């Protein structure tokens, strides 16, 4: 401390306070990264890349869900526009009230690649999924939920037009 600081009893210098704050910030940034580096990540199943390469419904379902047997049900609910004015961003929402849901996905039957999106659902989660999918042209869209190993679905025809004029 300088002479004036000693006389009036002023505490540590500004420089000392800044050093302490910088050291605390550095420790706060570095320690969580060091701790997380020592913890092994949870096992994650591999990304189903093959499912997204399929051009037909049954092979896409088989690659994504391990089965291709669909059961149409009212327990799967889907909202999609009747007419999509831009096929590049078609909003879709779907959910289900079924036990043991493990996966969900959307198929666009007339797209070059059938599987538009897919999700793994954590145990104990009730899926309510909203997304935007790309449609190449007017097509039948199928929402699929995997519940207790079975595929439950609902479908809707979505008309794709330029500017949304039917």
Automatic annotation (TrEMBL):
Pfam families linked to this entry: SoxY
Protein's UniProt name: Thiosulfate-binding protein SoxY
Domain (Ig-like SoxY) ranges: 62-165
InterPro entries in alphabetical order: SoxY, SoxY_sf, Sulphur_oxidation_SoxY, TAT_signal
Family matches, as NCBIfam families: SoxY_true_GGCGG
Gene3D superfamilies in alphabetical order: SoxY domain
């Amino acid at each position: 401390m300088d002479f004036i600081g000693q006389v009036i009893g002023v505490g540590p210098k500004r420089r000392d306070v800044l050093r302490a704050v910088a050291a605390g910030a550095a420790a706060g940034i570095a320690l969580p990264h060091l701790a997380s580096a020592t913890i092994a990540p949870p096992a994650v199943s591999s990304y189903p890349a093959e499912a997204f390469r399929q051009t037909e419904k049954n092979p896409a379902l088989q690659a994504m869900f391990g089965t291709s047997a669909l059961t149409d049900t009212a327990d799967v609910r889907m909202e999609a526009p009747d007419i999509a004015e831009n096929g590049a961003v078609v909003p879709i929402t779907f959910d289900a009230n079924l036990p043991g849901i493990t996966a969900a996905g959307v198929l666009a039957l007339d797209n070059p690649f059938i599987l538009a999106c897919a999700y793994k659902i954590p145990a104990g989660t009730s899926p309510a999924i909203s997304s935007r999918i790309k449609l190449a042209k007017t097509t039948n869209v199928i929402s699929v939920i995997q519940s207790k190993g079975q595929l439950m679905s609902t479908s809707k025809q979505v008309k794709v037009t330029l500017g949304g004029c039917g």
